[in-house]
Amino acid sequence: MRRHWLFYMSWTAVFAVGLAGGIAVGEMIRGQNGSGFSWLAAEAGGSLDALDKPYQLVLARTYLCGVKDEEIKQVPHDQLAQALVTYSGWEIIASDPAKLILFKRENDLAPSCKANGYFGLSPDGVLTLFNGLPAEQQVVQTFYRIDTAKMETRLSKDELESLKRGIRVRDLAEYNSVLSTYSEFQADEADS
């Protein structure tokens, strides 16, 4: 994992330095003959208008609770290198002349999971994270089938009812605690 991190960080640095160097060279050319990146636009078959439009920076995230989100930022071309430094821990997954997509795995719950996440059982007995109460059936993430017979013999009625109604999770510690508590009741694959 560390080797992958170093690889991506070094390529991110190379990309940022190269981009900053290219921008600096373009500014020097623009200062000398006023045409700036016209040679690049001509090679690409485009126009200088493309360079006047902001660069699209797409920030894609995945969270431990299974939620994925995307944020799009418009960054002026001359500020792209600085933006890349800001997102240095992100992985570059795609790029083209108008857009760069960065990706990050967040080691936390998504804000929506913190705001409205409940653990409960699906109708078929699978431990599930819901957006809202389990009765609303808005599944966010599923985990494993629960051996309900085994659980009923070891837990009190209150604990069983709590899981059926929904157990609220507001942070990563509560999330991990519920997973840990109910992992002992995970049904064997042969039982499924």
Termini gap: 34 Å
Instruction: Enumerate the spans where pLDDT stays under 50 for 5 or more consecutive residues.
Output: 1-11, 13-47
Give the full name of the CATH homologous superfamily of the largest domain: Bypass-of-forespore C, N-terminal domain
Mean pLDDT: 78
Percentage of residues in strands? 25-35%
Our count of domains comes out at: 2
Q: Which structural class should the secondary elements be placed in?
A: alpha+beta
**What's the shape?**
elongated
Instruction: Please give the share of residues in helix.
Output: 40-55%
Q: Whole-number radius of gyration?
A: 25 Å
Biggest β-sheet: count, sense, barrel? 4 strands, mixed
CATH class assignment of the largest domain: Alpha Beta
Task: Compute the number of helices.
Answer: 8
Secondary-structure element order, as H and E?
Answer: HHHEEHEEHEEEHHEH
The CATH architecture of the largest domain comes to Roll
- Under CATH, the topology of the largest domain can be stated as Ubiquitin-like (UB roll)
Q: In what order do the strands lie side by side in the largest sheet?
A: 2-1-4-3
Number-wise, the strands total 8
Pfam family, one: BofC_C
Domain Bypass of forespore C C-terminal: 107-183
Protein name: BofC C-terminal domain-containing protein
InterPro entries: BofC_C, BofC_C_sf
